Amino acid sequence: MKxxxxxxxxxxxxxxxxxxxxxxxxxxxxxxxxxEMAASLLTTDALxxxxxxxxxxxxxxxxxxxxxxxxCDGDGSLLLKMARARTSxxxxxxxxxxxxxxLLLGALLGRFGQARVPRPGxxxxxxxxxxxxxxxxxxxxxxxxETETEIVAEVDRxxxxxxxxxxxxxxxxxxxxxxxxxxxxxxxxFNAAREPHVQDLCRLLGxxxxxxxxxxxxxxxxxxxxxxxxxxxxxxxxYLEAGTYAIAVAAAxxxxxxxxxxxxxxxxxxxxxxxxxxxxxxxDGWFRVGRRTRTRLKPIDMSTWAYPGxxxxxxxxxxxxxxxxxxxxxxxEYVHENRFQHVSQLARMGAGVTVEGxxxxxxxxxxxxxxxxxxxxxxxxxxxLVIAALCAxxxxxxxxxxxxxxxxxxxxxxLAAVGAQITSTIVDVDPDAPSRTYE
Length: 439
Ligand code: EPU
What we know:
alpha+beta, 14 helices, 4-stranded mixed sheet, 25 strands
């Protein structure tokens, strides 16, 4: 999917070979904050969201909500007031910059009975289909017209339905939830996504007065209510950010205590790290990961899967880590159909990785990585290249670091504080240059 260039870009310079040591506090989850901000449309009362990560995606969602006529004030702690929202049309210049605007479809239909959102095209990590979102909303009574560029929907009153997903979709589940909470009657979602951010959205909607059962299971039952009210909610910790730093220290060596986090959301990831030879200790709201660089990592195969499986959003980072393992690791990507863009950039740094079809890649460790110039293709590939650069000999220069800012709050500052040699330099952006988007 093509989109306008970001307003600001920067380049990361990382000198590898330093071990990481110290504490990192994890920010709130981007993928929870986005649907939770969209939920503000469902009430004319104020919604207070705490622990919203200061990343470009949440800033963009704030701009979109303001453009719809609402207010979004604050920084980290947001006060959202959508009483004065008037339009149900999300403009292309904002909506087209982020795939998660599809979440506004269910919320706008619930609020106004109509919605217009830019069409989220396929992007670099796969087709990113949305037919399950649309099928569910149509079952609930929405009339939806799709063109190549937009999706336009309207409905007199949404009606609860029995909705079956043929595979669990995260934003699809969230879209149906946002539509169902104000629908007439009961909606049942079968094969619902169970990711921590989906559960967190359910908890927020519950505080607003929604009636949702089965939270955290694959069957969600929503009994529609006539009105929702305001609420205050603290966005759940970002298990993907926590997992990224856990993998980084296992790859580079050293020991990190990862605070403000939920190790229970990372069971499979932490298991893999232990099997690979890292030391893991978990407590309530924190965990610690360490590895002595004298002991080489073991190659441990990994397949991504919907939660509670190994998250696709940590696959690239895991691959970067396995370049340091002693032998071949098979990595299988079963969630997105084309998520190996990081391979060509890792290869520039000396990684030996063979991609086999669309689903499998084999990392031929141990690889001696060396610093070089690479271009970040997307947010999680960016995190993977940072990890590779931490393990590489010499200096790496990572261009297009704006991708990382979409979902990692202050990555440079957090890594520098635990011993990484990392700096960030702002670079000019050609406003006419097209850039590729977005998770
Ligand atoms: N799918 C369909 N039909 C649909 C919906 C999905 O075939 O109607 C397929 C997709 O093509 C994909 C798979 O199902 O192969 C999973 O897609 P899903 O709908 O769950 O992904 P998403 O909702 O578009 C969210 C996250 C992604 C994350 C995926 C999977 C947000 C804003 N985005 O995307 O996050 O990879 O779930 O967990 O929550 C990221 O943060 O880096 C990121 C890409």
